[in-house]
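Hi V.,

You were right to ask for the full record rather than a summary. Here it is.
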Amino acid sequence: MKRILAILLILLPLGLGAQDKPVIPDNYVSLADFGGVPDGVTSNTEAFRKAISALSKQGGGHLNVTEGLWLTGPIVLKDAIDLHLDRGAVILFTPDKKEFVDGKGGRPAISASKRHDVSISGEGIIDGNGAWWRPVKRSKVSDVEWKEYRKKGGSITEDGSLWYPFNLKHFPNLTESEKAEEKLRAHMIRLTECVRVSVSGVTIQNSPRFHLVPTRCQDVTIEDVTVRCPWNAQNGDGIDIMSCQRVKIARCSVDVGDDGICLKAGAGEKGVAAGPCKDVLIENNIVFHAHGGFVIGSEFSGGMENITVRHNTFCGTDTGLRFKSAPERGGKCSNIRISDIVMTDIKDEAIVFQTTYADRPAGYEDNQAAKTQNFLPEFTDIHIERLSCRGCSAAIRSKGPLQMIHDITLKDATIFYNETERDIDDPLSIKMENVRLLTF
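Predicted structure:
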């Protein structure tokens, strides 16, 4: 017994401790029992609300969504509820955007706040219908695709570079301007300050913004999930973990328009108050298109502690391992272990550190540089080993002073690059051992 406890004490600091899974009572209801109609036309918003309320009164249970196309507005989960989608079931969120707006602004498609034992499971599909929400850059679509967007109506900027889903043919505007309406675009699944969260098996696709966003949660398990959207979806992040503790992400497939698997911990004082991302295990995942395969930042003032990333594959991402931040949104990394990473066809850098990151919302100029030097990013205590990459523009890029990027190790790695071997501001920032950087 003492030996087992000793092993657990060693593993827990590395983010390998087992997460507590949700406990769901053996109560079962079907959405059809509450008037749900799976025809893709009838709204099931009230059916979802009634079914969840009925289960909540029983102390929780399983809400079964059977095969069919279930059109709905927002879904709000409660304690000890499992939203289960059968194979062939599709939850499609309505393009009528007014259902997702209240007095506080835009609402997530699926949400839970300050709940315990929250589960989403099954083999079905959750579709955010995000094309009705997202602005589209002309440079990122073909002529055929551009014509399809214009058929919806919408508005185009004077220079023709951007289409907004504003002044649509079939739905009224929610605000008086394109940019005001853009601010209502919410994440698809947002779980806030919840304990014991599980998302397993389902396909999550086509979000208005980020797809899956646990925020300030504890004991989060995300397994065997597929996350997908068009490669050019604006702000189409896949899985974003924000200031959570005890997290496992395993055997997921991600193919999205922005960062693939990303860890954040808030900016400035609010980030410090929210706390760190801590004790996180990310293993055996595949990321196809994304701005970064595995990403830290850009906001992590709360810090990153005990992060293990291992046995992941990145095929066709813009960057592989991406560490990005800037003054006023940075924090400190501690005990980041990355190993057994395979990459192919990386558009830009295999590994990149950046401490001058600027957020660029569609239709806005680059954010101005930070006016103060508070909350500086400190990428440190990051150890990468057993990495193979075939095809990238640059092998390693590190842009920032030694005080912000230091004590990084790269060991037992082979990177075949196409243009740039290394672009490192300070050679002392990264220590390399048995690293081969090759080209044609």
